[in-house]
Amino acid sequence: MSDNAAIYFEPEGYSISGPRLMGRNAAGFSFLNGFIEHGKVDYFAALTTKPDDFQIFKEMIGSRCSEKPLVSIDLENYPDLASVGCLYLPGPGLAESAWKRAKFGERGWSLCGITHTTLSGRAMDAITGLLSAPVQPWDALICTSRAVRDTVRALLEAEAEHLKARLGATRFPLPKLPLIPLGIDASSFFYSEETRKRARAALNIDEDSIVILFTGRLSFHAKAHPAPLYQALEKASGNKKVVLIECGWFANDFIKSAFDEAAQLMAPRIRRIILDGRIAENRQNAWASADIFASLTDNLQETFGITPVEAMATGIPCVVSDWDGYRDTVRHGVDGFRVASFQPYPGFAEGLATRHAIEVDNYDHYCGITSQMIAVDLGETIEALTALIGRPELRKKMGAAGRKRAEEIFDWSKIIQRYQSLWAELTEERRSYPTLPHQTPLKHPWPARMEPFSAFHSYATLQIDETTKVRRNTLIHLEQAENILALKSFSLSNRVLPSSPTLRDFLYKIPPVEIVSVQELIDKTALPINIVISLMMVGLKIGALVVERDPGPAEKI
Question: Which of 169, 396, 525, 550 is 20 to 30 A (C-alpha) from 107?
Fold first, then answer.
């Protein structure tokens, strides 16, 4: 039973070095490192679509798996995925891969994707597309939180309702929707007291200051509005020296000025340190310096949120909004505090959804406007921060509980086991799933990528089949045919022709003065029909063969 998976590898999806570091990039990078470190497999396989990508895959992995072979699968040997048993996709787009798999047989291998944001039109299309694509029960879409799984189910139910009303559809094979959180390397978030002192010195923070850390994208419209955190810190700080570190990145100067403006108005007594979170040293100094982690995300784009888990691994308590995946990670009153969040009732923003759907509002505007209608409880935030700022023993107790939870639940050593258990389960499901009597092979398993001469069957004057008769063109001898075929304009014919026999050998089988049918050529050469017709079509293309046919009345000259 296979518990391995080939990684669908496009470098951008696993890179954290780009100027726009997004959650999915960080998640992909972390997963790849976790799988290489903790995957109990005999080899690592990658499916790549560009010639240089496998080399990048090898370089990213480095020497960490020197004892295990690396297997390259590209588009030319796509069916080799069957030897691995599963294809892991770093997003929810199972549908396209399911259509591709249909060309080779749906039981060939399983597909396993994962949710990131589900707010964008592209992500929603990928999810709703699962119902009409040949996705099977031996496939899976990993949901990283209960909240995002509820969203996936809501989208699938709405799409099923549409297909039932429009097409009378009643059968909807679905992938599994397992709940597996994102993981971290918990050990990399352990900072000694000496590291803490050096980090604080580097940031000019004294030992008496209480450091609150927010890390992640600094965006009021696509991550978390800073207003409640600024207001709460101003109220909760009392006579304590409080420093707020905002470690992330601003998309542009307008957003940065918006944060500065809000801080000046709402938290004039709070010292702010802004660090570019795309720089590893800055991230380390931020985590090592922090006493409390705070993230009051209020955005529908969020699905899991890895930063509270990183905070727990660091051993600091969390103050987070009771929102999406945060409620699966931070235990209220144990690892920190979750403060209440509020949003309008279902159906409230139908007009906004329509504006986004017809592209009056772009995605950023849609994301931002919806976030303006989401709030967190300011009073609860003040209470939580006041308690943690004023009680070092509570910080220590909650931090220790969080670190234990991060190590036991969210470390990649534990999460990768769950991935591999899932992949093994999908293999067994694929092997044992009953073949129902009415499930006959489809003539066109991927209708939108139909075989071209079926889709465009009415284009030509004549369709070549086994009854077609041809003769050699005596005006072109075999050497001329080879010279023509060697022209640059015929170079693509090399992809059509078999390696053996050569076109010259094939033409030699046709006597110059005889008329033969395709079937006779099949019998004469003992070659399958597809090879004979491929050779014959190239012969016709270069003019070495002529179709023998009786012209119709309108065709006579």
Answer: 169
β-bridge pairing 375-376 and 341-342: antiparallel
Residue 268 φ/ψ, nearest 5 degrees: -65, -20
Q: How far is CA 166 from each of CA 114, 154, 161, 350, 445, rounded to the nearest angstrom? A: 29, 18, 9, 22, 22
Q: What is the pLDDT of residues 254-269, one digit of tens each?
A: 999 999 999 999 999 9
Distance CA 162, CA 167 (A): 8
Find the helix packing angle between 253-266 and 227-236, rounded to 10°: 30
27 Cβ neighbours under 8 A, 6+ residues apart: 90, 114, 116, 182, 306
- Domain, as residue range, for 373: 186-410
- 49-80 pLDDT, tens digit each: 998 999 999 888 876 776 889 999 999 999 99
CB 42 within 8 A of CB 120: no
Token look-up 């801080």 returns: 263
DSSP lists the bridge partners of residue 201 as none
Kindly report the backbone phi and psi dihedral angles of residue 389, in degrees, each rounded to the nearest multiple of 5, phi listed first: -65, -40
Question: What are the DSSP E strand ranges found in 11-76?
Answer: 44-47, 70-73
Alpha helices in 203-306 (DSSP H): 227-236, 253-266, 280-289
Both 287 and 166 in one domain: the answer is: no
- 450: DSSP letter: -
DSSP-derived 3-state class of residue 279 = coil
Q: Which amino acid type is present at position 239?
A: N
Instruction: Give the span between the Cα atoms of 431 and 100, in whole angstroms.
Output: 20
Q: Which residues pair with 70 in a beta bridge?
A: 44
Phi, psi of 289 (to 5 degrees): -85, -20
**Within a domain: 51:** yes
Note whether 25 and 14 are within 8 A (CB): yes
Q: How many domains does the chain have?
A: 3
Beta strand 44-47 with 6-8 is parallel
Contact 89, 127 (CB under 8 A): no
Q: Are residues 359 and 488 in the same domain?
A: no
